[in-house]
Design brief:
Layout (H helix, E strand, L loop, with lengths): L1 H34 L6 E3 L2 H15 L2 H13 L5 H13 L6 H14 L2 H13 L9 H9 L2 H16 L6 H10 L3 H8 L6 H16 L5 H13 L3 H6 L3 H6 L3 H21 L1 H10 L3 H14 L3 H8 L1 H7 L1 E3 L1 H38 L7
Antiparallel strand pairs: 1-2
């Protein structure tokens, strides 16, 4: 009897330790999960994981016949979407797939009809002079060189400051992007050094945001980020008096402008991966922030083939392939399972101990002994 009581106490102590350990582990994972970026069930895959996931999708949805069928569909659509056609052609070249003679003839005829060199030159000249004359194929290619000069950003900051002092209305969003775009000096250069490669996507992205906003090409969620940041991210009184990068930096709330910096960085990276024309197209397809992040991640692997693969695979599948369940989520699930398992074992052990004691008492009672 003494031995069984000792055994029960040891077993109970062990189970209590297991429950406490599982509860502590679960609590830690709940905290880690809440602190993870966006507190999300899903996070982006690493570069190596992403390449494997997208390779599987390509094998399933981008077979040679599927690519050629999609290419023919693009030829007969009106108007023809040349950025998708060119992206599909990139895939064919990359996969070393020969274009059948009849499709090659259709391709050559369509290109000669729609995209003569003289027409493109005239179109780009008109776009550079007047932004309202731009379309998706030339908007960034023809306007961005103008926007990428530091002089343009400095002028935007100066004009905004002068307008504020004079009590005149001014475009706060444009002024905020000018501050971010000053070579990313106010947000990046001061921490990683002037001329750093890390500043390039931010600078390019800020310029792209300016152009697409003026052209009415930005989705609503992007516009909201820019407006919110312009309202809380800049001390406009200090901003109007800034005459140096250091003074400009003091006028900026880095935390409030962080979403704009991250958006600019993603957009600039996409631009460098896929080029100007596809950037406009992909931004227009990004109806939600999650889709945009997925397309930015895909562009790092696919490059100029991104639009073509998106057409073949579908944006939803493409975005899902860039994500995986977070480690915090796995830890949270394992912790909860550990607590539940410990409680079940504790309950079963307690029930077994109770029944054992009742049985022993019954066996040792006088009534159960033979005469």
């Amino acid at each position: 009897m003494l031995i069984m009581n000792t055994f029960r106490r040891i077993a109970s102590a062990c189970l209590l330790l297991c429950v406490l350990a599982s509860t502590t582990f679960t609590a830690w994972n709940v905290w880690a999960f809440s602190q993870s970026w966006v507190g999300s069930f899903l996070v982006e895959r690493s570069e190596a994981e992403l390449e494997k996931a997208l390779a599987k999708l390509s094998q399933k949805f981008a077979e040679p016949d599927q690519i050629l069928e999609q290419l023919v569909r693009e030829f007969v659509s009106e108007p023809r979407n040349w950025l998708v056609i060119d992206s599909l052609m990139e895939i064919l070249v990359d996969e070393k797939i020969d274009l059948p003679k009849d499709i090659q003839i259709k391709y050559d005829n369509a290109r000669n009809t729609d995209r003569s060199l003289s027409d493109q030159t005239i179109s780009c000249a008109k776009c550079a002079w007047d932004q309202t004359a731009c379309d998706a194929t030339n908007l960034l290619a023809c306007r961005l060189p103008i926007e990428l000069t530091p002089i343009g950003d400095a002028q935007g900051v100066w004009n905004a400051g002068s307008s504020y002092v004079a009590g005149e209305n001014f475009d706060k969003v444009d002024a905020s992007l000018s501050a971010v775009g000053l070579g990313a000096t106010t947000l990046t250069v001061l921490t990683v050094g002037a001329g750093s490669v890390a500043t390039v996507p931010v600078k390019v992205g800020a310029g792209v945001l300016k152009i697409l906003r003026r052209a009415g090409k930005l989705p609503k969620w992007m516009l909201k980020i820019l407006k919110d940041a312009a309202g809380t991210g800049v001390n406009w009184q200090k901003f109007s008096k800034a005459r140096s990068l250091e003074e400009l930096n003091l006028a900026i709330n880095k935390r409030a402008l962080r979403p704009v910096k991250e958006l600019s960085n993603g957009l600039g990276g996409m631009f460098m991966n896929v080029g100007p024309t596809q950037t406009v197209y992909l931004v227009e397809q990004a109806k939600k922030a999650s889709i945009f992040r997925g397309l930015v991640a895909s562009s790092r692997v696919y490059g100029k083939k991104t639009a073509g693969y998106m057409k073949l695979i579908g944006s939803n599948r493409l975005v899902r392939a860039t994500l995986k369940f977070s480690d915090e989520l796995y830890g949270l699930v394992l912790g909860i399972l550990g607590v539940v398992t410990s409680l079940i074992v504790s309950l079963l052990t307690g029930t077994f101990g109770y029944l054992s004691r009742r049985l022993l008492l019954k066996l040792n009672s006088p009534l159960s002994k033979p005469d």
